[in-house]
Each structure stands twice: as structure tokens, then as C-alpha cells.
Amino acid sequence: MSHHHASLAAPAPLTVKDAARRRNEWRVVPLLLPYLWEYRYRVAFALTFLVIAKLANVGVPLILKNVVDALDPKAALVAMPLALLAAYGLLRFSTTLFAELRDIIFVRVTQRAIRRVALTVFRHLHALSLRFHLERQTGGVSRDIERGTRGISTMMSYMLFSILPVILEFILVAGVLITRFDWRFPVVTFTAVGIYIGFTIWITEWRTDIRRQANELDSKANTRAIDSLLNYETVKYFNNEEFEARRYDDNLRNYEGAAVKTEASLGLLNIGQSFIIAAAVTALMLLAAEGVVNKDLTLGDLVLVNALLIQLYIPLNHLGMVYREIKQSLIDMDRMFRLLEENREVADRTNARNLAGGPASIRFDHVNFSYDPKRQILFDVSFEIPAGSKVAVVGHSGSGKSTLARLLYRFYDVSGGAVRINGTDIRDFTQSSLRGAIGIVPQDTVLFNDTIRYNIHYGKPDAEESDVIEAARAAHIHDFIESLPEKYEARVGERGLKLSGGEKQRVAIARAILKNPGILIFDEATSALDSETEQGIQSELDRIARGHTTLVIAHRLSTIMDADQIIVLDAGRIVERGTHRELLDKNGAFAQMWALQQQEQAQSAAKAVVAPVAA
């Protein structure tokens, strides 16, 4: 056994947390009750069919006994027991018929529950804070949801169609044994069933642990693969295909080890189950044979005992699987419902109201903020953007500029102070109305893997076709789109990889224009562009921004010369503020940055002049 698998060999000792989790797995069940209750009539129908099927099932051996007794040479019957044989066939058929009817009726209930829960989880994941998504791997989350919804269906169908039927059948068989035979028959049967169930659960518990490890390893391998494919370019740059393949293989190898062990333990389970059943059936047949020899029982009784037992054990045979699947689906559902409990850091207040449209003024009021307590990002930041004016924030990277946009958008809530719109704390508005009033052109544009039209349209899904084209014109991208063979139907590729940085940026600008919000945020919106394109777009941005309250997070200072106020952030504090002119006259931090960038620009301009000569 290689050292890789050794870690999987011994089941980990149960910690308090595990015990709590074990106890907790069942708390999922009440969460499903409302879905069952909604379809109570369907459920009742399904259960009725279930009972009929089971009665038919136990009726079969009883009739079989009468058939055998009727055919017994000693009973001087001349006629074939036709009625009995016909009844036998009918009962056989109705067993299946009603079982199938029950499934047909019930499938709507499970599917609806799955749909409802999956939608709830999906909505909830979109409502969680940005922090959750930055820390989570998407591949893993989607697997969790997928497994959880599968778990619901497993859980409901097994509970109703495996556990209940076994209990019913058990009661019916017990009734027959107690009324028709002496006490030894039921005692042997019940003892065997007890041992059987105990053994099954014990082995299955042990297997579940192995299974859980296998699942975690599976998710890990999956996340690894997705991650590696999303970073395809990076892998290529560093020539690391082999390294990635090896890492993936390590994950797969661990999974293989766990999977092999699950299968082996399954074999053990089946052998044990068969042994217990065989022993019980043999013991009962001995008792019955002895009864026939002593003339207490007929041959038909012998057949009856055999048939009853076989019937009781067929459903029990699935017990291990059912128990394991139910446990597994409980664990899976638990993970999914735990996603539902992931705290929303940013939640609407109970009496939150909608932010009215129209012009808006923004005020940052002594804002403090930290992503985590150890590292504060913003310190006592206060400034105002009057309605319709344009304020720019500049500073070195890491000074907290982008955080301002995230706070205004309420991806996070401030740790101290407040952000106000029209004098009202933004925490008093509903998130959807707040975000509806803000248009953002982010630093790195993320596009959906769909057509260009879809991506622009996304800014306002109910906009007209003509509006989309108008927005594209305003963003200076209409001519480019028209030059493509598929025009607006061209696909942008996953994460927008097929467009250049500038083209993506323009799609994002078009998207923001289409939304036509009262507040605009440009987060270094032109950093992906070369200076010529930038100047073109810059005048557009200025035109769009007119009449909107605008916050520009700027990298190139030349783009914000016309801002009504420029705020210089340094390590989370405001160090200077004023217009472009005032700040240059101050000769402080801003003037220094300006001089530096002018110099760089002059250098690149000089290069551009020299280059053609060299060519």
C-alpha cells in the first residue's frame, strides 16, 4: 500500500464536530416538509397505491399456498384450481402496476421540490457578499448545488418508496406468521431481520466515511481541473502542462484509492447480508419441514414460508444501499442548505425603501473600512459629490480607490461612518434600487460568453434594439461591430477573450450607457486602452458623465483634468483635494505624480518619433 493511501485507511476518530454533524444531518428533513405539504393530495395518492401494492405482494404467497395445497395428491380434487391461478396472476401484475402508478404520481412532487430548492439556493448565492465569492471556488459550489438537489430527490423517493414499504411489508408478513404458525417462526424471522439491519447500518456508517473522503477528493480534482483550464494561458506561458497534469493525477490517484476501498467494502456488506439471510431461511425451512413431517403443516405452508421470506428479504436487500444513499443525500443536502445559511453580510433592512431616480448627491461621511479586522483600508474618509458633478480619486495602487466604488455599490458595508445618497444612509435603501441607480464601468471588464448584442443588452434587458445600437454608437464601437462578419451576433468567447482590451472596455461602456443610471462609476475605465483610443473614449465618457453624478477612479491623471474635484488618497487617507489647477499649485503629492506621468508620456512620444527613422 503506497503512502498515499495510508491516510485513508483508518477512519478518523470522531471529534465533537463530527458528532454534531452526524446529529445535524437529519435537520435537513424538516426543510423538505413544506414541499411535501404543498402536494399533500398527490403524496396521499402515492401512499395509497403503495399500500395496495404491498397488500398484493403479500397476497401472492397466500394464494400460492392454496394452489399447492389444492394440487396435493392427497386432497382428492379433480379440477384445476383455475380461479386461484387467475388470482395469482392478477396479484403478481397489480404489485407492479400500483408500484409504477405510485412513481408516476410522485415524480412531480420531487421534481418541484428540487426546482424550488435549487432556485432558492441560486438566488441566495447571488445575494451573498462579494467576499464569499472571492473566497469560494465556483466549480466546487456548482457541484454542491448539483449534489444537493440530487440528494433531495433521492431522499424523498427512498423515504417514501423504500423505508415505508419495508415497514409495511414487515408488518404484513409478521401478521401472517403470527396468525398461521407457532411462535418459533416469527421469533427466528424478527431476530434475523434485527441482526441484518444492525449489520447493514454498522458497515454502511463505516463506508460513508470512506465515501465522504472520496467525494471531497472528487470535488478537489474537479476544482483543480477547472481552475487549470481557466488559467490556460498562464499554464502555457510557463510551459507547465506536465506539472498541471501531474497535480491533477495526484488528486485522481487519491480519489482512485478511496473509490477502490468503497467498492471493496460494498462486497463485504453484500457477503454479510447474504449470510444472515441464508441462515434465517434455512432455519425456517427446517422448522417448516419438521411441521410437514409431523403433519402439523401442509406442503403449501412450506411454500408459503419460503415465499414470504424471500419477499421480505428482497426489499431488505436494498437496505444498505438505501441507508447509505439517504445518509449521503442528507450530507449533500446539508452542504447545500449550509450555503443557504452562509451569512449575507449585506442584507436589506426590514424597512428599506427604494431609491428614487433622478439626480443624486453622494457623501462619504467619516468612512472607516477594513476587509478584515487586522488590516484597515480606509481611515476617516470624507468627501462629497454634488448632484451632477464629477469627482476623481487618484492614488497609488493599494491606496483604497477601488474600495470606494465597492462601498458605494454596497458590495460591503462600511465599518464606521456612512455613505449617503441625497443625505440618506445607503443602508436604508433596498440593494436592488441602489444598484439600479449606479452604472459602473469596471477596470477589467467581464463579459458573458455570448453575443456582443447580449452583452450590451445586459445593461438593460428590456431596452429596444435601437437603444442597443445607439449605446454602441455612443461608445464608439458600432463601426467595429459592423465590420465583423456576424455583426452584433458575434460571440465574445468565455470571459470575453476574443475581443481586445479596448473592445471589451467599449462594450462595457455601451452597457453602462444603455443602463442610463443617475450615478456613474468609472474604475480606471480607460487603463486598458492606448492613449489615442483613450482620448476618443475620454471625450465620450465626459459627454456621458454630463448631468450624471460621477466618481472616477483614475490612473492616468490626464484623463481627469476637468474633474470638479480631485481627491488624492494615500494608504486609505485623503492627503490632498482640489481642482487640477489648485493641486498643481500646491506642489504636493499630486503635482509629483503629474510630473512623473508627463515625463513618461514625453518619453514614449520621443520613442514614437525615433522609431520610424530606425525602421
Folded structure, characterized:
By secondary structure, the chain is α/β, with parallel strands linked by helices. The chain has three domains: 3-7 and 22-341, ABC transporter type 1, transmembrane domain (ABC transporter transmembrane region fold, Up-down Bundle), CATH 1.20.1560; 356-437 and 520-529 and 549-609, Rossmann fold, CATH 3.40.50; 445-516, 3-Layer(aba) Sandwich (Rossmann fold). The chain is built from 21 helices and ten strands. It has helices at 3-9, 16-25, 28-38, 40-71, 82-127, 130-135, 138-180, 184-230, 232-237, 241-293, 299-317, 319-341, 401-408, 431-436, 452-457, 465-474, 478-483, 501-515, 531-545, 580-586, 589-614, and strands at residues 362-372, 375-385, 390-394, 416-421, 424-425, 438-441, 519-523, 549-553, 565-570, 573-578. It has a six-stranded mixed β-sheet. The chain has a four-stranded antiparallel β-sheet with strand order 2-1-4-5, with helices on one face. Strand 1 and strand 2 (375-385) form a beta hairpin. Helix 7 (138-180) runs antiparallel to helix 12 (319-341). The longest helix is centred in the middle third of the chain and has 53 residues, at 241-293. The radius of gyration is 36 Å and the shape is elongated. It starts with a helix and ends with a helix.
